[in-house]
Amino acid sequence: MRQSGEINDAIECPLCCGAGKLKRTEILDRLGVRDFARVAQLSAEEAFRLLTQKHNHDQQGVWSRFDIELAKRTAEIKERHKDELHSAQSDRDNLIRRVEDCLREVAQLRERNQQLEGEMSKAARRGKLEEISFEEEARTWVGIAVSEKLPKNGDYVLAYRDPSGAPLEPCILVDNKDKATVTEGDIRKLVRDVKERRSMVGVIVAREESQLRQLDRERRWGQEDGIWVLRTTRHWLPRDLEVLKPVFERMRTEGPDFLQRNSSLAEEVRRTFIDLDEIEKELKKAAKAIDAVSDLTAKYRSRLQALCDTAASPKVAPKAERNGGIPQTLGA
Is the residue at 92 inside a domain? Predict the structure, then answer.
């Protein structure tokens, strides 16, 4: 018990009422003071929540508008470039067709090239045979020396022989051609080869007269870039060498520029070849006419002989004459 007269200073807490446990909010509520810090915190949290919600909503709206605008722009671009895309597709198809055409053409060219290689191989073999045949024939010509087959710069070298058999100057470079026609390139090559051989005369020999151009037949002997060139055939060459023999003798005695100093003589040699060719053509015509006359003569001789044999045979006697002049009946 408390003693009387003692003042009790202990009183109950007007806030907690003796409980001893109060929350901060209860204390502030009992004191009539609001928790401004808590309100501020809650207000800030709510503000952030609302702001985040609004931002998310705005962001979704922005992406939605972006998707719509993207689809719209894509459709516009596609529509705008539709013709270009179609044209590009057409160009691609055309390019594929052109590539296929090129591949087919390459295959055809490859096949054609193989054929040409085969033909060139045949031509080379034919040319080789032509050269061998020419060598064999040239070795039979009297007074003419022929070299072995040259490895380059022409086919053979011809020369006249002196009485002892030694070859004489000038040396004559021969190039054989067995092709459809002699070309200007063949002439230039012959001139170049003659210069390489340090000679003055070159001969291009065709297999047949038809292989020479009209220009070649009209100018069978002439000067090309300082070199004297004879255009001839296998058949004409022995005769042409006989015609040129005195000219070459003068060239040996008076120098290789003899013909240059006597242009009229060179022109006369050219005309001589033309005249000889015309004479030979006429002789061929005459030979053909003589052969035709000979054939007709033999034919008519045979016919006349047959007629004579028929006319000279004895006549057959009538049947009555063979029986003594008395006709015989079947019952006799």
Answer: no
